[in-house]
Amino acid sequence: MGAAAAVFVAFLASGLLVQTLNVAFGIWFTQIFVFLGLGWYVLRATGREPVRYTRLAFPGLAPVVFGFVLGVVNFFAIVAPVQYVAQSLLPPAWREIYDVADMFRGQSSLEMAFIVVSVTVVAPLCEEFFFRGVFFQGLRAPGGPAMRAVLLSAVVFSMFHLDPVGFFARVELGVLFGWLLVRTGSLWPAILAHTANNLVSMVLFFSARHLEMPEQPGSQEQAKGMLMLVLIGGAVLWALLAATRRFPSLLGPPRSREELEAPEAPILLMPAPRLLQLAVPWMLAAVLALGTYKAVDPLGIQLSRIDRDFPLQSVPEGAPDALHAERKALYELRVQARRGEIPLGEYAQERARQSKQKKTDVR
Fold this sequence. Notes:
InterPro entries: CAAX_protease, Rce1/LyrA-like_dom. Residues 113-200 form the CAAX prenyl protease 2/Lysostaphin resistance protein A-like domain. This is CAAX prenyl protease 2/Lysostaphin resistance protein A-like domain-containing protein. Keywords: Membrane, Transmembrane, Transmembrane helix. It is globular, with a radius of gyration of 22 Å. Helices cover 73% and strands 0% of the residues. The two termini are 44 Å apart. The protein is mainly alpha-helical and 363 residues long.
């Protein structure tokens, strides 16, 4: 619990602060220096060896491939339908406030690539290291059934994303990742399942945006399509899980029930080094990363400041076409300012004008 509290404080104090400078850089910074760095620090400070404690030993090719495939199938069978239901039932204002698509709007190609790599590669590794490696193992230490720790770590994992719309979908994902860790004895299948989920989500998001498909649920065709996903995806998911009983090697070497349920004993290598000595390398690396970003991309920081100073009301899907065109033009203007093709003042002026629009004006 102490590790979770420390990460949460660090997340709010540094991760969110850095993300106000630039979303793309902030996501990467949060994953590396908060989830991975602070998790690593907590383990070393308590005398544990991070790689062994978090079960980062490679389990073999079969469990890793199985984890990736399971992540893909689970997305269509459970995650997408649960997210669809949540978006349909929750107030529209919530969907607007917690619309993850906002972080992609007005970004340059380099920033977009940074976000994609962070979400599909960096986040699965760093988040699984902390939530299933550090936090889950800490919950198991006092003893008790493993699935209790799986569920609690899944709930905390979802809460950390600060997204009530996706809360239940992420809880299910957390349970899946925890189950993979318990059954395989390695963190890598969970990391690959996490990667698969984020990768599929990203591909579908960009495909829908390219085809200009509606982002919000509601049509009868969407409901029928989602029902088909549940039926087909559920059948494939059941077949995959059934295959693990017929081919146990899919989950790696067999483990006894006692081994699956027993708490893992802490691995003490040496007395904990002084806390400051452990923290200094991570602190220096974080400061260096921030300094490098500030020196390399001052324009991006200024744009982020403009965005923060002039927040925008979301434009609902049913709003007049003119309002949608106006907002799209603003995002294109931001990209031009990002490239240095127009003065920052031109973008700031238009952003300020649209920011002053009342909520009723965009409905």
